[in-house]
Amino acid sequence: MTTKNDTTTITLPMLRDRIDAIDAQIQDLINERAACAQKVAEVKLTEQGDQNVVFYRPEREAQVLRRVMERNKGPLGNEEMAKIFRQVMSSCLALERPMRIAFLGPEGTFTQQAALKHFGQSIISAPMAAIDEVFREVESGAANYGVVPVENSTEGVVNHTLDSFRNSRLKICGEVEVRIHHNLLVAPNINPDDVTHIYSHQQSLAQCRAWLDRYWPHAERVAVSSNAEGARLAAEAGKNGKAVAAIAGDIASQLYDLVVVSANIEDHPDNTTRFLIIGNEKVPQSGKDKTSLLVSAKNEPGALYRLLESFERHGVDMTRLETRPSLISKWGYVFYIDFWGHCEDEACHAVIDELRERASEVKVLGSYPVAVL
Ligand SMILES: C=C(O[C@@H]1C=C(C(=O)O)C=C[C@H]1O)C(=O)O
User: Could you tell me which residue ranges the ACT domain spans (predicted)?
Assistant: First the structure.
């Protein structure tokens, strides 16, 4: 490699020496950072006492990652750089106190992928069989935080998750989005042409509906508890020579040694699922937050209008409005409302106060940093 007017030639060994020297520097700095995080833990313990100490600070982590992206000059892209820092923080936090994260399992689900994307790799994974078990595991304190799917860009809301918030005191303390790519998978000994049944979670079957109608109109679609479970069943069936396929993502296909018959079979190429992080603590302002509310409207003319009017007047930007049966009175409804801002921001606070006067019940499900990655 030479440049104009450059008499010295840069050789491969020279570049490798330079990389080795940089690596040594980075390693020292990462350890210096880790030692700081350990000190942070000591300070937190002295200030807050052993019982109530909160090691994980989602608002602080979001600010760190945002700053990494803002100051990044390249050649590495902003996201790539933030992912590296995501893992550095994850390792540092594990030194302070390793966190046990419950998620909708089994191993290999997109929810696990969301958990790793949000918290980094240095966590203790606790796969749960159902969404309400994730809630219970966090409520009981057996897990520090939980991860549950809440909405998909193709299929809409995950009712189980919304309904679980009704009787829970848990707070939403974060959100994370994952691009969902599905594959049609079979065990290695199975001829795809023989497939009679296709297993997956009902949401995944729905996200591939048009593709299945077109290419597999005669195969029976079987809804199971998760797409990782579908993959496990397809692997089991393969061992018995049964021609069963599964629809699942890459992690599940690797975990259960399945072969990809067709990749990226989701009907919408930007198919994305949003997940929520649930925990026992409220999260302070991070500077770029969202808030989720559960609101029961009075059953009278103009009730919903009066709720929405408050948002408009205070200039608070709503991002989502979801209706679910109230489960208390027939044809009664509750609303799930998401909006930009933190419940301690002045305008948001004013809206919430007004809603409390206008609705029969308002529950703040949480204010949390907007997903960074
Ligand atoms: C170091 C701290 O604790 C944790 C680790 C962080 C980090 O490594 O940057 C950031 C926030 C916390 O989750 C802190 O609170 O500052």
Answer: 292-369
Examine the fold and report which residue of 278, 312, 346 is the final residue of a domain before the chain moves on: 278
131 shares a domain with 91: no
Which uninterrupted H or E stretch holds 137? helix 131-139
Give the residue, by CA position, lying nearest to ligand 1 atom 2.
37
Residue of the nearest CA to atom 9 in ligand 1? 89
List the residue whose alpha carbon is closest to atom 7 of ligand 1. 89
Residues with CB under 6 A from ligand 1: 37, 40, 55-57, 60-61, 64, 89, 92-93, 96
Distance from Cα 93 to the centre of ligand 1, integer Å = 6
In a domain, 18, yes or no: no
Question: Each residue of 159-182: pLDDT tens digit?
Answer: 999 999 999 999 999 999 999 999
- Same domain, residue pair 208 and 256: yes
Range of the domain at 76: 27-95
Q: What single letter denotes the amino acid at residue 169?
A: R
Using CA atoms, how far residue 200 sits from 17, 172, 206, 233, in Å, is: 50, 28, 10, 9
The whole-angstrom distance between residue 58's C-alpha and the CA centroid of its chain comes to 13
> What is the domain count for the chain?
4
**What angle in degrees, to the nearest 10, is found between the helix axes of 78-96 and 58-71?**
150
Residue that is last in its domain, among 278, 311, 326: 278
At residue 348, what is the residue type?
C
Residue 170 in any domain: the answer is yes
Ligand 1 pocket check: which of 30, 55, 123 to mutate, most ligand atoms within 8 Å of Cβ? 55
pLDDT per residue as tens digits for the range 66-119 = 999 999 999 999 999 999 999 999 999 999 889 999 999 888 889 999 999 999
Which residue owns the Cα nearest ligand 1 atom 8?
A: 89
H or E element at residue 264: none
Determine the residue of 56, 97, 119, 122 to mutate for testing ligand 1's pocket, defined as the one with the most ligand atoms within 8 A of the Cβ atom: 56
Domain with residue 237: its CATH number is: 3.40.190.10
Distance 5 CA to ligand 1 centre (A): 48
pTM: 0.91
pLDDT digits (tens, 9 = 90+) for 303-351: 899 999 999 999 999 999 999 988 787 778 899 999 999 999 999 999 9
pLDDT digits (tens, 9 = 90+) for 139-166: 999 999 999 999 999 888 999 999 999 9
What percent of the chain lies above the pLDDT cut of 70? 98
Q: Which two tokens stand for residue 258?
A: 């399945």
